[in-house]
Structures are given as structure tokens and as C-alpha cells.
Amino acid sequence: MSVVFQNSSGWVLDALPLINGSYQRCVRIGKGGSSLLKCSFKSQYFQTSKNYYCQSPTAALAGGKADVLQATDQQSKKRKRKRSELNQGEVDSQAFHQRVRSVILEGTKSLVASAQSCGYLNGDADAEKEALPAPECGLAALCEMAKELPPVDDEELKEHAQLLITDGSCTPNIDLFTQVTEHNSDCGAVVPLMGREYVIPPHTAFLLSDFTRMKPLIDYEKKFDLIVMDPPWENKSVKRSRRYGSLPSSQLKRLPIPQLTSPNCLVVTWVTNRPSHLRFVCDELYPHWNVQVVAKWFWVKVTTLGQFVFPLDSQHKKPYETLVLGRYHPSASPSTSEMKEVLIEDNRLIVSVPSALHSHKPSLSEVLKPYIRPGAECLELFARSLQPGWTSWGNEVLKFQHSSYFTLTPADDSADTSKEEAPDGPSAAPALSLPPHHYVN
């Protein structure tokens, strides 16, 4: 379980148990055969014990646990801009913040206090976070390269999905770019793909592509009851860092949501704190898809001591992000049974320690479960990792499945794996290259 505590304000999540729950038993597929492993995502990525505004955790705790969520007036003043005039975007941002401030503050206080009483968010203030390398992700570049290859004729494809593993080994000449790939086993798999090793959860499906190659996902012929998306929003920080390519808001309308959704599908979008992005989703994007906004939730990022990672009133960065939840209703009126909905409460909070990896969002599968039907088909768009039971799409869909993010140890019940070692880090990995294609000699 990843839900540590839940009340009327929302949930406190521990991301690691949900990630690791699928990897207690994995099979490593290699040229020399297979071996059993246990895989776990490295916990060091979730050890943010100090906030980013250099407040002493000891000083913060001196006034009691209720005070750890508050930034001092001096710290807030340090981050205020010297110039007094704000542009319209900044004015709108402040107005939105003032509307939700009490919801964020009071709700987080309640959830953190309850979690701490359960023994969670009482982390060691003096713990040193180990610096972990992040492998370079060349998946987006591979998608660009794949677009230069000739398109596959639908008649050439016998099936619209391919199995990752067949006859106990990785499917030869697997094509990740023009077909959905399925891993239908009950256990995870550590497999070589494109010259690197990736950890794949059980019962998952994925497509590695960008906007121009989404047809295989449509041809997959699944209708989804839940769609979660984390678009690469345009902003100055992304442009400066060049960590990933961004996408103009208007381009999101090209997503074929109506072709992927079942009636009453729940659509959830991660939105930055830029007011123009929030207005676009609510006033343009969702109406374009016949999706009705039903609630706005907030992801609140805290340290392992329960502090906001940024001051709540910071004008630079806020310690929360917004989620817009909506229901898809096709233009044709569905039957009464199809129209049944579970009421979604507004202004709920998801409190968790964020990953140190940029854009590594917590899974929403457990908190959204009450609002979708049992056995629902779930899809993540712009995904950078995989989830068991989900279909995932994006040009970096395997990014956080790279084996260097995991600790791999031999399974106790495998006599063959005593000599098995964890894979080398990213520096030892071969250069990325396009996999053999069925239409390439």
C-alpha cells in the first residue's frame, strides 16, 4: 500500500511501496538464459530531508510539529522580487494562490500530523542524501530517428500488439516504435532493449513514440476508463535547463482522447502553477474533448520531516501542483447505466515526499481507484515510467525503468542467481541504437 493515511482532506502517499510492490519477483532475460531477481527502486531518490530554502529542520521543529509547515517571514521576504509591479500572469498567480492557500495549509497540517502519529514523516534531519547519477535518456532522440524509417503498412502487421517475451526470451527484432508492446507475465522482467537494460513491471503495455506516431495506440483497440497525462508544458525553467522538449498548449488538442476513451472516462491532467495553463485546460482543452471539469486537486510536496519543500508563499516556486479532473461524455447520450458516476470531492490533497528525479510524479492509481469501475482500463500519456495493469505512451516511456534506478539482487529461491550481479551503471552501458526493425535489412 502506498496510502499511509487518509482523511477528508486527502491522502498521504509513500511512493516507494507502490513502485516496489510489482518487483518482488523478477526474471532477468539474457543471452545466457534467465535468472530470478528481486528489484527495488533506489530509496535514495525519496530522501528529501531538507527543504530547498535552507531552513534548519532543528529550528523548524523547535516550535512543535505544527510549525514545520510554516516558512518564516524573513525567508518569504528574501524571495520577494525587488520590483513592486507585477505582470498580469503574476497577478493571476497570486490571486489563485490566495484562493487555495488555506486549503493547502490546513489540509497539509492535518494530514502530516496524522501521518507523523503513525510513524511516517519523522525522518532523520541530519541524514545525508546519497548523490545518485541519472543516466542520460536518449529515448526522445530515438523516436526522432524512428520517424525517418518508412511507415509500416497495416497489412504487414498481423497483430496490433506484440509480446515483450516469447518462449522465455525477449522477442527477437522487437519493434517498440510502431506497435504496442505487452508484458503479460505475473512477474517483472529485466530485459535488454536498444542496447540498455530495463525493468518492466508485470501486466503492462507501452508504446514508445511521439505525436506523429500515435496511430498504433488507437489501433490497439482498447477503450480506457482512466487517462492520466503529464504534458511537457512550456515554461522558462524547462527552456533554460533543456531537460526535455516542451510542447505548446495548443498542440495538446491533437491528442485523440475521444478515440481512446470509454463513456464516463475519468481524465486527469497535471498542470503547472501558471494560470494560463490552468485556464487552457479548463476552458479550452477539456471542452474540446467533451470532458467536463469535476474537481481540482493538489499534490503537496513535503520533506521526510513533513515540511513544505518550498515556502508556501514563495513567489518563485510553490510546494504544490494542480491536478484537473474531468469526466468524458460523448456527444451522443449514453445509457443510464453508463452515466453512473462516483462523486469526486473538490480541493483534495495528495501529500508525499517528491522524487529527486525531475518530472517523476507519484502514481495516482490507488487514490483514483474509488472513482473508476473495478477492472478499469487505465492509460498514462506522456509517461516516463510504467505501471502494472496500465498502458503507457510517450517518447520517454521507459525513462525511469532504466536498471540503474533499481537495486537488483539475486532471489533467495534461485540456486542459479548466487553469482548474479546487479547491472553496471549508465557509464558502462552501450550506446543507444535503434533496434532491428522487421522492415530493415
Automatic annotation (TrEMBL):
It holds the Pfam family MT-A70. PANTHER family: N(6)-ADENINE-SPECIFIC METHYLTRANSFERASE METTL4, N6-ADENOSINE-METHYLTRANSFERASE. Coiled coil: none annotated. GO terms for molecular function: nucleic acid binding; RNA methyltransferase activity; site-specific DNA-methyltransferase (adenine-specific) activity. Residues 71-91, 411-441 are annotated as: Disordered. Residues 426-441 have a biased composition (Low complexity). SUPFAM superfamilies: S-adenosyl-L-methionine-dependent methyltransferases. Belongs to the MT-A70-like family. GO terms for biological process: methylation. GO terms for cellular component: cytosol; nucleus. This is Methyltransferase 4, N6-adenosine.
